[in-house]
Specification:
The chain has about 200 residues and is α/β, with parallel strands linked by helices. It has eight helices and ten strands. This is 4-nitrophenylphosphatase.
């Protein structure tokens, strides 16, 4: 986006997103700000629009609320050229006790209200890999993408011409790649868990 230094991002997300933005020198508001994590009802009459917000970035947010969604909606509808971005399209993520809504699901109310899909800047979009390669200068032929989800992690690796390793400790099951309704997204390698790599290493 080449966001000018005097412009800001409104964040629906947690400290990890803020840390990444800070490291890149991108100004932001929202996120973990206590004023946005409040349980008080949102009041449009007391809301002051920041004209410098040029993007709304949605990621996983365990404290998402009506205030954050309302402020994001105001920026996206009232600030000319404000971009609607998501960190990734994961619909769910696995916890120790079962599946929970993922980062991609956090943006669903805004998608519905705006009648518009956001731009995904993370998996499976190749944009993130291009940014990583620009900073790290890795060799794609000597790099492998490891993940537990076919439609984000593995697709992300394939989009960047990387080898891919699917681990079966998260979202995807063996049935998803070998069953009668197997996914058309096929990883190069499959293993039960990331711990199996210790065996390969001889430990």
């Amino acid at each position: 986006m080449k966001l000018p230094k005097d412009k800001k991002v409104y964040v629906i997300g947690m400290a990890g997103i803020e840390e990444e933005l800070r490291e890149e020198g991108v100004s932001f508001i929202g996120g973990t700000d206590p004023a946005d994590c409040t349980l008080e009802p949102f009041s449009l009459s007391s809301f002051s629009l920041d004209p410098d917000v040029q993007a709304v970035l949605c990621g996983l947010d365990l404290s998402v609320n009506y205030t954050k969604l309302s402020k994001a909606f105001q920026y996206l509808t009232r600030n000319p050229g404000c971009q609607f971005l998501v960190t990734n399209e994961d619909s769910t993520f696995p916890s120790a006790d079962g599946l929970l809504p993922g980062a991609g699901a956090i943006s669903a109310p805004l998608r519905y209200a705006l009648e518009k899909d956001p731009i995904s800047i993370g998996k499976p979009a190749k944009t993130m890999l291009d940014c990583i390669q620009a900073k790290v200068k890795f060799d794609p032929e000597r790099t492998i993408m490891i993940g537990d989800r076919l439609n984000t992690d593995i697709l992300f690796g394939q989009a960047g011409s990387l080898a891919t390793l699917l681990v079966l400790t998260g979202i995807t099951s063996k049935q998803d790649i070998t069953g009668p309704n197997a996914s058309p997204i096929v990883p190069d390698y499959v293993t039960q868990s990331i711990g199996d790599l210790r065996v390969v290493d001889g430990q």
